[in-house]
C-alpha cells in the first residue's frame, strides 16, 4: 500500500481551520479602506460567500431527486425508505420543494422572513396544499418534512417538482436545490427515456456540477414483459447519454414493485419480479455505500469546492485592482473609453447572433410545417381504413388516438427545433467567451440552463426512442389547438348527432379534418416563433449581464487608477494582505486531494 493511501482527512479539523480563515476574511469586510478600494459590490460578494459556506458546514449529505413531471420521484423516495414519507395516493404531484430530514414527525412550510406554518398530514394532500398555497401572499421557500427515520440522520433528501410545466414556477428553486446537493438521483420513465428536453437539462444543469454521485434511474420498469426488453432499453439509454455522461450506468427498476414487495402485496409483474428486486436492491446498496463513504468526508469535500470557487471569484476582482494600482490616472479614462467602444461591437455581435437564430428558426419552421403537412396527409388517408372498424369502436377510440398521435408529432417537431437551438446557442456562447475573454465555464450555463426553462418546456418535448417505444400523456402547448381537438373529438363521438355507423362517422371526421389541420399548422408555426423569441431573450440577457460586468470592472479599475500615490500605497497594503489570506486558503484547502471537479458553486444572494 502506498503511503499516500494511508492518509485520512480529519473533517472536524478541516472545518475548524477553514472557519478561522473565514473569520480572517471577515475583518477585511469591516475595514473601511478595503471597502473604499474594492467597492460595495465586492464586500457584498464576500458576505454572500461567508454566509453560504457557514451554512453548508452544518448540512449533512444532501441528495436531490429530480426529473420530469410524473416520473415517480416521490414513489421512489418512499421505496428507498420503506414507508410513505410522501403519500403519493393523495399528493399525485410534487407542488413544492420538499426537504426530507431527521426529526420528530412534523410538516413545516418554510416562508420568507423567518416565518413558517405547521401543516397536518391531511393538509399535505394535493388539493388541500394547493388551496393553502393560493392563499399565501408569496411563494414559500420549501416544505420541511421531518421524519424519525435513522437513515435521515446522515442525509437530507430534496424532492423537487417535475421539470415539465412546473419548471416555469420552480426553475430557480430546482436550480438552487441542485447547487445545494452533493449527489443527484435523476428519475426518468422507461416508456419514453430521456427526451430531448431531459438531455438538454442534464447537459446544462447536471453534467458540469461536479456531484459526488449521479444515479440515473429508469422507473416503471414493471411495464416491460421480460428481461430482454429491459436490457434493450438500457442499451438505448446508454447510447443517448454516452456523449455527455460517459461512464454513467442507467439503473432500471420499479418503485411500485418495490413498495408492493415491502408491503407483501401482489407484485405488478411476476415475470420479471426477481430482476426488479435485484436491481432495486443494488441501487439502494450503492446509495447506502455512498452515505457511509461520505459521512466523514462530505463536509471537507464541500468546503474545498467552496474554497476553490470563492478564491477564484474574489481573486478576479483583485487582479483588476492590482492592474489599476500600477496604472496612471490617464489609463482610467482610457479604460472607460475602451469599454464604451467595445459596447458598440458587443451590440453588433448580438445583432448578428440574433440574425443567425432567426435564420435557423425560419428554416426549422419550414421543415416543421413540411413534416406536419406530410404527417397529416397520411393521417387523413388512414381515415378510410376505419371502414373495417365498428361505429362504437370509432366513437370510443379514434378521437383519443388522434389526440395522442398529434401530440407525438408536434412534440417531435419541437424536440428537433430545441435540439438544434441548444447546439447553436452552445456554440454561440463559446464564441462569446472566446471573443470577449469571458470564462465560458460560468457564462455558457447561463444561456443553456435558461434555455430549457419557461416556454421551452411548455411543448413537453418528448422524442421517440430508438426502438420505437410509444410516448403517451403529452400535453398540448397551445390552447387553440387543444380547443379545436376537443371540438373535433366531441363532434366525432357525439352519438346524438351521428348515426351509429362507420360510414357516417368517417364522413364526419373528414368534414372536420380541414379545421383540425389549420389549427395544427398554426400551432406548429407559433411554436417555432415562441422558441425563437425565448432564444433571443436569453441572448439579450446574456449580453446585458456581460456588458454590466465589463462596466463594473472598468469602473473599479478607474476608481483605483485615479488614486494618488499615497492612496495607492495604502491600497496596495490592504490588497496584499487580502491576497495573502486568499493564497492561504488556496494552499490549505484545494490541493486537489478531495475535489476532482473544476466546476464551482455560487454564493447565495
From TrEMBL:
<dbReference type="InterPro" id="IPR027417">
    <property type="entry name" value="P-loop_NTPase"/>
</dbReference>
<keyword id="KW-0175">Coiled coil</keyword>
<dbReference type="InterPro" id="IPR051943">
    <property type="entry name" value="TRAFAC_Dynamin-like_GTPase"/>
</dbReference>
<dbReference type="InterPro" id="IPR045063">
    <property type="entry name" value="Dynamin_N"/>
</dbReference>
<feature type="coiled-coil region">
    <location>
        <begin position="561"/>
        <end position="588"/>
    </location>
</feature>
<dbReference type="Pfam" id="PF00350">
    <property type="entry name" value="Dynamin_N"/>
</dbReference>
<protein>
    <submittedName>
        <fullName>Dynamin family protein</fullName>
    </submittedName>
</protein>
<feature type="domain" description="Dynamin N-terminal">
    <location>
        <begin position="63"/>
        <end position="217"/>
    </location>
</feature>
Amino acid at each position: 500500500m502506498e503511503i499516500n493511501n494511508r492518509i485520512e482527512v480529519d473533517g472536524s479539523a478541516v472545518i475548524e481551520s477553514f472557519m478561522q480563515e473565514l473569520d480572517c476574511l471577515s475583518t477585511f469586510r469591516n475595514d473601511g479602506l478595503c471597502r473604499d478600494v474594492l467597492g460595495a459590490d465586492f464586500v457584498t460578494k464576500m458576505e454572500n460567500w461567508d454566509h453560504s459556506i457557514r451554512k453548508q458546514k452544518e448540512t449533512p449529505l444532501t441528495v436531490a431527486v429530480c426529473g420530469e413531471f410524473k416520473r415517480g420521484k416521490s414513489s421512489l423516495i418512499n421505496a428507498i425508505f420503506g414507508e410513505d414519507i410522501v403519500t403519493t395516493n393523495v399528493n399525485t404531484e410534487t407542488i413544492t420543494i420538499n426537504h426530507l430530514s431527521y426529526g420528530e414527525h412534523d410538516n413545516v412550510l418554510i416562508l420568507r422572513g423567518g416565518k413558517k406554518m405547521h401543516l397536518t398530514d391531511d393538509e399535505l394532500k394535493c388539493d388541500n396544499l394547493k388551496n393553502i398555497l393560493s392563499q399565501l401572499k408569496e411563494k414559500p421557500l420549501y416544505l420541511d418534512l421531518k421524519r424519525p427515520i435513522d437513515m435521515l440522520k446522515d442525509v437530507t433528501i430534496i424532492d423537487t417538482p417535475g421539470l415539465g410545466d412546473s419548471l416555469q414556477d420552480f426553475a430557480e428553486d430546482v436550480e438552487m436545490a441542485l447547487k445545494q446537493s452533493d449527489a443527484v438521483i435523476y428519475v426518468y420513465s422507461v416508456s419514453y427515456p430521456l427526451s430531448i428536453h431531459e438531455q438538454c437539462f442534464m447537459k446544462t444543469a447536471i453534467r458540469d456540477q461536479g456531484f459526488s454521485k449521479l444515479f440515473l434511474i429508469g422507473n416503471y420498469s414493471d411495464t416491460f414483459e421480460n428481461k430482454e426488453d429491459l436490457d434493450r432499453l438500457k442499451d438505448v439509454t446508454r447510447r443517448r447519454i454516452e456523449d455527455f455522461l460517459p461512464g454513467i450506468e442507467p439503473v432500471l427498476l420499479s418503485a411500485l414493485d418495490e413498495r408492493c414487495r415491502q408491503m407483501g402485496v401482489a407484485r405488478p409483474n411476476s415475470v420479471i419480479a426477481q430482476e426488479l428486486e435485484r436491481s432495486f436492491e443494488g441501487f439502494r446498496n450503492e446509495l447506502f455505500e455512498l452515505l457511509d463513504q461520505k459521512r466523514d468526508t462530505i463536509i471537507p469535500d464541500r468546503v474545498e469546492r467552496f474554497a476553490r470557487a470563492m478564491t477564484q471569484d474574489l481573486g478576479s476582482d483583485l487582479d483588476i485592482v492590482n492592474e489599476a494600482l500600477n496604472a496612471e490616472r490617464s489609463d482610467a479614462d482610457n479604460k472607460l473609453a475602451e469599454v464604451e467602444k467595445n459596447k458598440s461591437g458587443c451590440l453588433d455581435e448580438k445583432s448578428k447572433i440574433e440574425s443567425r437564430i432567426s435564420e435557423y428558426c425560419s428554416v426549422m419552421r419550414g421543415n416543421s410545417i413540411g413534416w406536419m403537412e406530410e404527417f397529416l396527409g397520411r393521417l387523413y388517408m388512414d381515415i378510410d381504413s376505419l371502414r373495417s372498424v365498428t361505429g362504437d369502436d370509432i366513437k370510443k377510440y379514434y378521437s383519443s388516438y388522434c389526440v395522442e398521435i398529434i401530440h407525438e408529432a408536434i412534440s417531435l417537431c419541437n424536440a428537433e427545433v430545441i435540439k438544434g437551438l441548444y447546439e447553436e446557442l452552445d456554440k454561440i456562447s463559446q464564441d462569446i467567451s472566446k471573443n470577449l475573454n469571458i470564462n465560458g465555464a460560468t457564462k455558457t450555463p447561463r444561456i443553456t440552463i435558461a434555455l430549457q426553462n419557461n416556454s421551452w418546456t411548455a411543448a413537453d418535448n418528448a422524442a421517440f426512442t430508438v426502438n420505437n417505444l410509444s410516448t403517451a400523456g403529452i400535453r398540448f402547448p397551445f390552447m387553440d389547438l387543444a380547443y379545436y381537438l376537443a371540438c373535433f373529438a366531441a363532434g366525432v363521438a357525439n352519438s346524438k348527432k351521428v348515426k351509429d355507423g362507420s360510414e357516417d362517422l368517417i364522413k364526419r371526421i373528414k368534414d372536420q379534418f380541414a379545421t383540425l389541420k389549420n389549427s395544427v399548422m398554426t400551432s406548429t408555426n407559433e411554436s417555432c416563433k415562441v422558441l425563437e423569441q425565448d432564444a433571443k431573450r436569453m441572448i439579450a440577457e446574456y449580453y446585458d449581464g456581460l456588458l454590466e460586468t465589463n462596466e463594473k470592472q472598468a469602473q473599479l479599475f478607474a476608481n483605483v487608477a485615479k488614486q494618488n500615490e499615497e492612496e495607492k500605497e495604502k491600497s496596495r497594503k490592504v490588497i496584499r494582505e487580502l491576497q495573502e489570506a486568499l493564497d492561504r486558503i488556496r494552499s490549505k484547502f484545494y490541493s486537489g486531494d478531495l475535489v476532482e471537479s473544476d466546476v464551482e458553486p455560487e454564493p447565495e444572494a
